[in-house]
Amino acid sequence: MPNFTRLLALVSIPAALAACSVTSQRDAGAAAAPLHPADPYTWLEDVTGERSLAWVRARNAESARALAVEPGFSASRAHLLEMLNSTDKIPAIARIGERMYNLWRDGAHQRGLWRRTTLADYASAQPAWETVLDLDALARAENENWVWGGVTCLPARAAAQEDRCMVALSRGGADAAVYREFDLASRQFVAAGFALPEAKSQLWWADRDTLLVATDVGPGSMTESGYPRLVKEWKRGTPLAAARTVFEADAKDVYTFAEVDHTPGHERTFFGRARDFYRTELFLQSPAGPLVAVDKPADALFWAHRQWAFLQPRSAYSAGGKTYPAGTLLAIGLDAFMRGERNFDVLFEPTATRALVSGGVDFTRSRVLLTIQDNVASRIEELHHADGRWQRRAVKSPFPGRLSVASQHDPALAQDDLAESYLVSYEDFLTPATLSLARTGSDDAQVLKRAPLFFDAQGMQVEQHFAASKDGTRIPYFVVLPKGAATDGSTPTVLYGYGGFEISERPFYSGAFGSAWLARGGAFVLANIRGGGEFGPDWHTAATKANKQRSYDDFIAVAQDLIARRISSPKHLGIMGGSNGGLLVGAVLTQRPELFNAVVCQVPLLDMARFHKLLAGASWMAEYGDPDVPAEWAWISKYSPYQNVRADVAYPQVLFTTSTRDDRVHPAHARKMAARMLEQGHDVLYYENIEGGHGGAADNAQRANLQALEFSYLWQRLGNR
Questions:
Q1: Is the pLDDT at 20 greater than 60, yes or no?
Q2: pLDDT tens digits for 324-351?
Q3: Which residues contact 256 (CB under 8 A, 6 or more apart)?
Q4: Sequence-ordered list of residues with C-beta below 8 angstroms from that of 235, at least 6 positions apart, any chain
Q5: Which of 79, 109, 612, 694 does the annotation list as catalytic?
Q6: C-alpha atoms less than 13 angstroms from C-alpha of 210 in its C-beta half-sphere
Q7: How far apart are CA 630 and CA 25, in angstroms?
Q8: Active-site entry in 358, 579, 619, 659
Q9: Does pLDDT of 698 surpass 80?
Q10: Domain boundaries, the chain
Q11: Which part of the chain is the Peptidase S9 prolyl oligopeptidase catalytic domain (predicted)?
């Protein structure tokens, strides 16, 4: 489950529009002519209906036949699976008590092993892992397609011993999950312990015998976005139905949340409601104290750490006689802030090129760790308060790729050997990840693990260029060129983008793209378009709602720049994107089809007239707008791919991919778009994993097969033939 920092600082569940004026506009137009024409393909919204799945299986068979004929498809799939199953991968670790836990998948453990070891042993070449839970064995025993959904553990407290956790198990990779209490000492589920049925739940440990739970408890307990509306206090040994409601949100909010701070001397509980994706209301409850509103700007990110409060406004914020630009990080004593004082210290101030990475604020016991991106390359700074002021130190670290930081401090422990330690990972397009253990106050770091080289990068090169968008804005993008790339427009090139929800696209190492694309002579391009968070909140808000078209203009500008530089050409240029990025490539497909010869559209949004009526879609209106409000539909309708595809326009062949078990972005978006394009006579391929969730695949074998199909398609469309 998301931790408190993530809940408040990067709301990971998209949001619903909550303005009362929207409701009144809907009501006023109720008697008018329908805003949206009848849709002949709504039957494909029946996710598991017999007719829908028959259509899916027929399309899957057609696509598999068309793509499996690509020379080397079987070998590529086998190699991709070998990389995914590699025992040389870096095991991602998370600290629970005094041990490090990892969820491991390989050829023998497709669902995964949840296992643990000590930090010292983890640093060795061959750690002695202890299996805690075997998901494959559990799935076989219970005849369920369990996929790991995460874990929420009771803080270790002073004894530094792991105790109880709530384990999330997802059927087929869906967001909805079953939760069961698990005993870490016995490595067994707790008989008659806490257990939640399948739902999009969140939970937090108040103490060993009390959970705060937000889940589906029947009519009226969920928001219109499909997320929990109530937080309940659930005592061990009592039925969930008897749990006491301690906080609630409105039905038109996105969801409600809580967090229990177990830090000795700073015990407190926060409750909150997400009004929409970017606006939250927060309340503080001290032990035995009343619930008090936290007077922060609705769109500001907020952290509480020990005696401090940290605030990052997403729009210009005036307080204490000063105005702070969007993206500034401010610090003040929490008690002083709650009293109404606003004499902030500025810990970070953005510039035209520098911004905090989304989620780039972390804490050791005494330090604040900032991950900063400067022209989309990462740096780390650490700050601490001493001698009455905040002192700053730049951390020497690799540059200019992607740095990721994870504090290892357990705030519930009074004595903690890792209180000033953090994990730092570095990678770039041609350099696999290195994971190190660092300590504040020093640039020295102990290398723990190095990821293997999955492709030969000798002779490849990375360049950063800038394209001029339609309104003149400079849009950065990275180009990864294969060895011996020509500058005559003949290089097969994949252009990838996202451009939404303030998510930054940063350099990353991909064994799949490296071996199946770059090593075979293809180029890869990563576009940093508006709508993302590469340059802070303003970069995002510049391309939301009425200005969403700017994301598509930026992406088109990058494509045109690639062609002008003769890095590629329309015959050899393809585009790829998933989720909001699927909407991106769908919109660009319908607007400028002559620029591309391939489109990989993954788990996409496409029907923007009905996105708010499908699964979690109602929660995304803060990004796109409300299609039931005529003034807002006026701008949405201009780019919605499903409404803009035409029979009399020539489009490149498109490959749509999605998952039946995706309960976040409804698979009907891809289904209906494919069906409409087929009806219009266009060349379309479609592949839907029957399981897999929003990630598109439930295990390594499914992932390898899907990737092999995508690369086969790209080579068929863009290869030099």
A1: no
A2: 999 999 999 999 999 999 999 999 999 9
A3: 214, 228, 229, 230, 231, 247, 248, 249, 271, 272, 273, 274
A4: 209, 210, 243
A5: 694
A6: 10
A7: 9
A8: 579
A9: no
A10: 46-80+454-718, 356-453
A11: 516-720
CA triple 578-582-585, angle to 5 deg: 125
Q: What is the pLDDT at residue 161?
A: 63
H or E segment to which residue 512 belongs: helix 511-516
Instruction: State yes or no: is 579 an active-site residue.
Output: yes
Residue 698 exposed, middle or buried by CB count within 10 Å (0-12, 13-18, 19+):
buried
- Residue 692 is predicted with a pLDDT of 64
Mean pLDDT value of segment 646-659:
98
46-80+454-718 CATH, one of 3.40.50.150, 3.40.50.1820, 3.20.20.70, 3.30.70.240: 3.40.50.1820
Q: What residue type is 577 in one-letter code?
A: G
Query: What SS3 state is found at 477?
Result: strand
Residue 61 CA: distances (Å) to CA of 41, 217, 321, 680: 21, 40, 65, 21
Cα 97 from Cα 210, distance rounded (Å): 19
- Identify whether 694 is a catalytic site residue: yes
What residue ranges in 619-683 does DSSP mark as E strands?
Answer: 654-659
* Of 153-162, 558-567, 599-608, 652-661, minimum mean pLDDT range: 153-162
* pTM metric for this prediction: 0.92
If you ran DSSP here, which 8-state letter would residue 64 be given? H
Tokens of 539: 């970069």
pLDDT in tens, 617-646: 999 999 999 999 999 999 999 999 999 999
Helix (H, G, I), strand (E, B) or coil at 163: coil
Within the chain, how many helices (H) and strands (E) appear?
16, 39
Report whether 573 contacts 693 (CB < 8 A): no
Stretch 205-221: mean pLDDT = 96
